[in-house]
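=== RUN LOG ===
request id: a7f3
mode: sequence -> structure
chains: 1
length: 188
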Amino acid sequence: MMLLDEMIEHNKKFVNNKEYEKFQTSKLPNKKLVVVSCMDTRLTELLPQAMNLRNGDAKILKTAGAVVSHPFGSIVRSIIIAIYELNAHEVCIVGHHDCGMANVNPEETTKKMISRGVSEETISTLDYAGIKFKDWLRGFDSVTENVRQSVEVIRNHPLIPKEVPVHGLVIDPETGALEIVVNGYNEL
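=== RESULT ===
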């Protein structure tokens, strides 16, 4: 059975047994919080538990490395919508130790793309179009510095209200222990 078929089969039972009822909540975050986290599979359930977040407590955005790399990209747009339209009052960037983005090598990733059918011409066209392709693909050296830089992108954004605290944390993906990198209350 294919993965999609398994999911649909499970979903039919989930809906028929009304298992969704325990997840029902408002679209507004109860704790008025937006969390930007890494897409690492170890954090799917660990991060909310470690932060004492239940279904409906926060808007949780996931992106590779919890990197907020562009001030007008989709992550920042989502944060802005959460603040202005969904009643979020605080933002928290959460990176983690042993992050796969720390090991991303743009040259190796490019080779993998080419081996799967992306043409070298397409990749070079992106460079000519003004996209610094290797910088765009590059990971980071320090999770702490990455969190600090992502916090700065949000905190200094011209469309984010100055009274919104922007916190930066690092989680241990083995234990769930949280370290404060930036206490957003101190920065107000």
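=== NOTES ===
The helical segments are 3-16, 43-50, 74-85, 106-115, 120-128, 133-137, 143-155.
The beta strands are 33-37, 58-62, 90-96, 166-171, 178-182.
=== END ===
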